[in-house]
Design a protein that fits this description.
The chain contains one helix and 28 strands. A hairpin with an 8-residue loop joins β21 and β22. By secondary structure, it is an all-beta fold. The two termini are about 20 Å apart.
Length: about 475
């Protein structure tokens, strides 16, 4: 539980408005019930369902306007159900499924003050909404925090998503891949023969995860963040890009040739990851949060930083450090300040309908979100960047992009969906929505408005 704060199963119960059945599953992203509308899962890992302190809960806001709450029937105090979320189509039925991390669950008796073993609960989508399907855990669990990070993507090109589960406390960190065609669960660590990295107990390898098709071959690659990795300097951080099917790995740090910046102690490179197509070339690009980066004078070790974000672009040969970018508020609207944590959260989506993704960057120390526009020539641009302010003292601590929520309760059409930005201030339990807008030059967004609210770090993460 202490680890969750620092970074911050049984059958489920669903409560709330009864859900109207849909005809079938149409394959729309984030559509759990097959009605053609995007749905949103909001985690509150410190919620107290049924009087169990910090057992955790996840609220599902369906695109129809209905909602339901997911919990564990046998929940115990301190489990932190909802410590991570991931959405993907794991069974190939066209309905989106939801994986929920329960990183502080103990297999046996709870160890006072200790980190949890962790489990992951998987809910499958259906015309009736989400329903519990399976529970995942590690053999011989220790204080692994299995489920502290999750990601979904089609890593083998079979048309179904695989689920990737991070256990950042398991001997320096591991990730486990479920659903690879013809394979059992595959566990990968820094010590894996074809990864070949030095591992330390404190690296937190697998604390952040993302998937994307960086080379355009139809199969996703996996990016694994290790924000406390010590290579040349304590806690400088790293990202490992993995071709799971091809069993290849590439290490990225701020010391990698072509990546702008210099590795320093406690930068936290890789603390947040997001993928999107910023230049519209059909290949995914990777944004890497470095929220501990110090730009102000006299920054002390291990304090929160001003923060930066590094961006690498996809090519036919995968991610390239050529033309990589390093963004900070020095080049954008806003002013870098001590403890802003620019880059603590990231999200991507097409906010203006031009076919290229924008990048939203959380700046929770400034109670803000910075948005950069994607363009065909060169990708992200500082021209027309926006600084969005909202309610809550940690506004920007969690972000998501959702298609079609600018016109809620309407089904998604064949037209390219317009995304909207979802922003949380989890310390106050506030979730706000910023609608995108089509057309015009540059980027224009609607005004931030309240979407929902709750307790127990409501909005800690989204799915």
């Amino acid at each position: 539980m202490n680890a969750l704060l620092a970074a911050c199963l049984a059958l489920p119960l669903l409560s709330g408005t009864s859900h109207a059945p849909a005809v079938g599953c149409g394959g729309h992203p984030s559509d759990f019930d097959g009605d053609g509308r995007a749905d949103l899962a909001v985690a509150a890992p410190y919620a107290d369902p049924h009087g169990r302190a910090r057992a955790g809960a996840v609220t599902v806001l369906y695109g129809s306007g209905q909602k339901a709450e997911l919990t564990q029937r046998d929940a115990e105090p301190g489990d932190s159900f909802g410590s991570a979320l991931a959405v993907g189509d794991f069974d190939g039925d066209g309905c989106a499924d939801l994986a929920v991390g329960v990183s502080e669950e103990f297999a046996g008796a709870r160890v006072p003050g200790g980190d949890g073993n962790g489990v992951v609960q998987v809910f499958h989508g259906s015309p009736g909404g989400l329903a519990e399907r399976r529970r995942l855990s590690l053999d011989a669990p220790s204080s692994d925090r299995f489920g502290a990070a999750l990601a979904a993507g089609d890593l083998d090109g079979d048309g179904r998503d695989e689920l990737v589960v991070g256990a950042p406390n398991r001997r320096g960190g591991t990730v486990t891949v479920y659903g690879m065609k013809g394979r059992k669960a595959l566990q990968i660590s820094q010590k894996t023969r074809w990864v070949r990295q030095r591992a330390a107990e404190t690296d937190q390898w697998g604390a952040a995860l993302a998937t994307g098709d960086f080379d355009g071959d139809g199969r996703d690659e996996l990016a694994v963040g290790a924000p406390a990795d010590t290579i040349a300097r304590d806690g400088q951080g790293s990202v490992t890009v993995i071709d799971v099917r091809g069993r290849g790995a590439r290490l990225l740090t701020q010391s990698t040739p072509g990546i702008i910046g210099a590795a320093e102690k406690w930068d936290g490179f890789g603390a947040a990851l997001a993928t999107g197509d910023f230049n519209g070339d059909g290949r995914d690009d990777l944004a890497i949060g470095v929220p501990g980066e110090g730009l102000s004078a006299n920054q002390r070790a291990m304090d929160y930083g001003d923060g930066t974000v590094d961006v690498l672009y996809g090519t036919r040969r995968g991610l390239s450090t050529y033309r990589s970018e390093a963004w900070s508020q020095r080049a954008l609207k806003g002013e870098p300040r001590y403890s802003d944590r620019f880059g603590a959260a990231l999200a991507t989506g097409d906010l203006n309908g031009d076919g290229r993704d924008e990048l939203a960057i959380g700046v929770p120390g400034e109670k803000a979100v910075q948005v950069l526009t994607g363009r065909g020539a060169g990708g992200l641009t500082r021209v027309g960047n926006l600084l969005i302010k909202g309610r809550g003292r940690d506004f920007g601590a969690a972000l998501a992009m959702l298609p079609g929520w600018n016109e809620r309760y309407r089904t998604l059409s064949g037209r390219r969906p317009l995304y909207g930005l979802v922003v949380a201030a989890p310390d106050q339990g506030l979730v706000q929505f910023v609608p995108g807008r089509r057309g015009g030059s540059g980027l224009r967004l609607g005004k931030a408005r309240g979407l929902s609210k709750g307790t127990g770090l409501y909005g800690y993460t989204f799915g």
